[in-house]
Amino acid sequence: MTTRDQARRRSAEGRMDAGRPTPASSASSTPSLPERLLTARERKGVDLYRAERDTKIRARYLAALERGDWRELPGAVYTKGFLRNYALYLGLDPDDILVQWRAERGDNPPSEPVIVVPRGISAPRQGITLSPGLLVAVLLAVGIIAFVAYLGMQFLRFQKPPTISVTDPAAAVIEVDESATSYTLRGTSDGGATISISTPGQNPIRTTAGPDGTWSADVSLRRGRNEFDVTAIDPDTGNQADQPAQVFITVPFSIIQAPTLTVEQPSDGATFENGAIPVQGVTTNASTVTVSATYLGPTAAVAVPSPKSGGSAAGAGAGAGGLSAAKPPAAPAPQTVQVAADGSYQAAVALTAGRWSITTTAASAQARTTTITRSVNVVFKGVNLVVTISGGSAWLKVWVDGQIDPATGQAGKTFSDGKTVTFSGTTSVEVRTGNSGSTLFTLNGTSLGSLGKAGAPETWLFAPPAPPTRTQRQ
Q1: Which CATH number belongs to the domain containing residue 222 in this structure?
Q2: Same domain, yes or no: 90 and 12
Q3: Beta bridge partners of 107
Q4: Fewer Cβ atoms within 10 Å of its own Cβ: the N or the C terminal residue of the chain?
Q5: What is the pLDDT of residues 253-273, one digit of tens each?
Q6: Same domain? 467 vs 369
Q7: Is residue 228 part of a domain?
């Protein structure tokens, strides 16, 4: 501070002390300049540091203005600039603030030129300036938001399955004219979805829905009930419709029409290496299918092996040479099975070794029938030995092709009455039983019964075409 300013300050302080009012008159005077500034800032709701950022005036100078500590300020010229900008920021009249500042300083009418400081603040808040860095940040934020929105849409798409509906026929179950051989299914789905139409026993039919979601497909009809399952598949995600649509179209039969019958298995003249013969095929205008079998005779060089000396075979004639002519086996009871909705049927016939005739008969509700016969050969391969425990429990130890079978183990195993176990080998199966009379054997489909007496421990070797032989293996 210059000598001139110090002299002026001392003179002003002397005048102010001389004319200072009493406490009573001071209480009724207007607020001082520091009080007005402090009150205006508090009313604005900002602190000194916020005011410093907004006005670009150091907080220490703003605090000095609010305390009236003029000595802390850099000089009169700067002080007037600070007061003008601070008054504008606080919403006060800058000229009025300057007049009060001069009055409280004790200044005479200003003899020095008034310096008008440019107004750096035109409003309490400045507008946003788009700098290059800010613009890049905004574009980056917009890109991230767009990418997240895209991921959300894709996630919802992957989660949402396509829809499917059938509009023609309008009802899920219909009956058409008996001459109908095809029908055009129509419906709606998502645009571009793959429509799959499947029916039992046939390959699925596929078509694609148009951009508007409509689709159509021609399906073949057979007499009787035709079942179609219609679903939609999103080709991009692989999602299928939650609830496939079902359509049932019935083509009525003529009352006088006999069933049609196809036997897919067995083929005529087929040879089977075990006795489980599958019988299956397709029929129309039939409600049931009956399967029966007739024994035609042994295959070439087929004979029933009988045990050698030392045993008796129940159900098998004893032969001094070890082989005896096979007795004609009993034919299995006929089987009647229901025809499925798609016209298919299936059954299984258990046959022993030999030549057999299998007859398949389809019957309609009007008792009209259609029959197809197939001949088959049953020739067991290797050794297939079925052991049944009957009349009491029995301890067994079994060797298959000379090796201990895991089913019995090295120590053997006790099987309860009614238990049946099967052993299969390439060349031989050897059985040690603790109760020969309760151990029944069926070799390659031929029942041999028990080969010894009740309670007698015996070991039997089965190696066809040789007959069963009693051995000393323990």
Answers
A1: 2.60.40.10
A2: yes
A3: none
A4: C
A5: 766 678 888 999 999 988 887
A6: no
A7: yes
CB distance 323 to 244 below 8 Å: no
Q: Is the peptide bond before 118 cis (omega within 30 degrees of 0)?
A: no
Last residue of a domain, one of 251, 279, 305: 251
* 118 assigned to some structural domain: no
Q: Considering its fold, how many domains does the chain have in total?
A: 5
Q: What is the pLDDT of residues 270-313, one digit of tens each?
A: 888 766 789 999 998 888 999 999 988 887 644 445 555 444 44
Residue 441 is assigned to a structural domain of this protein? yes
- Cα distances (angstroms) measured from residue 271 to each of 34, 163, 351, 379, 386: 118, 50, 12, 7, 21
pTM: 0.39
